[in-house]
């Protein structure tokens, strides 16, 4: 038991690494995940709209993109983009792997978020689109103002779950060799663990990851619960009306 505590819960090493985890690691993890979430959401919406298009030249590229980036391991995508494009885009980003890490995470996230948006939009009753068109709205306006907002609202829990995955996947950027000031949570914990031969710094990094992901998980449950309650409340008048008519 003492050996276990010494290896995983050595408070000296935990307190030693915590300032860097909070000052540098937490900030960079949130930047990597946040920037990737924003870019991935925009690209994901484009992919979703393309995937739902009746035009094959739009639909098929979106499907191929989604299949590729969902089918490849995240670490493989990060290494290929981070190291492969690093030589091509050196004039733009120099030798800094940070932007390429964000790009890789964004492209991966876009494939998943695009499918989330597509499923949400398809779950909206077709009558919503038909009613909007009957009121004189164009197909584009009906989608943008009526169908897509309803679809996005339905998939909010899945979108938050995807952000949680991005927070965890940001640790894979470690393999690109970030600079000292660019290290995320895992890299900082890993560096001290390698120097001391003790795993307590990695446990400390895990605590910070949990401080981010656990509240987000509860947020997902809260949003999901609110959406379910909203559906029940919306359905209640229909039941009352139906009962009145039958009587």
TrEMBL record:
Lineage, uppermost ranks: Bacteria, Bacillati, Actinomycetota, Actinomycetes, Pseudonocardiales
Presence of the UniProt keyword Cell cycle in the record: no
Record localization: Cell membrane
Family recorded in the similarity comment: Belongs to the binding-protein-dependent transport system permease family. HisMQ subfamily.
Keywords: Amino-acid transport, Cell membrane, Membrane, Transmembrane, Transmembrane helix, Transport
Protein's name according to its UniProt entry: Amino acid ABC transporter permease
InterPro entries on file: AA_ABC_transptr_permease_3TM (IPR010065), ArtM/GltK/GlnP/TcyL/YhdX-like (IPR043429), MetI-like (IPR000515), MetI-like_sf (IPR035906)
Principal subcellular localisation of the protein: membrane
Topology in membrane: Multi-pass membrane protein
């Amino acid at each position: 038991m003492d050996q276990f505590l010494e290896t995983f819960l050595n408070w000296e090493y935990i307190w030693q690494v915590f300032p860097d985890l909070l000052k540098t690691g937490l900030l960079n993890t949130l930047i990597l995940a946040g920037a990737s979430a924003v870019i991935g959401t925009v690209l994901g919406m484009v992919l979703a709209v393309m995937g739902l298009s009746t035009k094959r030249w739009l639909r098929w590229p979106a499907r191929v993109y989604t299949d590729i980036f969902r089918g490849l391991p995240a670490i493989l995508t990060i290494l290929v983009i981070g190291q492969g494009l690093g030589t091509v885009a050196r004039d733009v980003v120099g030798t800094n792997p940070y932007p390429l890490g964000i790009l890789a995470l964004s492209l991966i996230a876009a494939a998943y978020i695009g499918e989330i948006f597509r499923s949400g939009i398809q779950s909206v009753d077709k009558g919503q689109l038909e009613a909007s068109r009957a009121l004189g709205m164009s197909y584009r306006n009906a989608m943008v103002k009526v169908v897509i907002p309803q679809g996005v609202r339905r998939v909010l829990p899945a979108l938050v779950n995807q952000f949680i995955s991005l927070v965890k996947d940001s640790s894979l950027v470690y393999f690109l060799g970030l600079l000292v000031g660019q290290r995320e949570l895992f890299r900082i914990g890993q560096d001290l663990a390698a120097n001391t031969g003790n795993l307590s710094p990695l446990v400390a990094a895990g605590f910070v990851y949990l401080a981010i992901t656990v509240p987000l998980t509860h947020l997902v449950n809260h949003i999901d619960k609110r959406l379910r309650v909203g559906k029940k409340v919306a359905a209640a008048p229909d039941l009352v009306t139906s009962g009145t008519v039958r009587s």
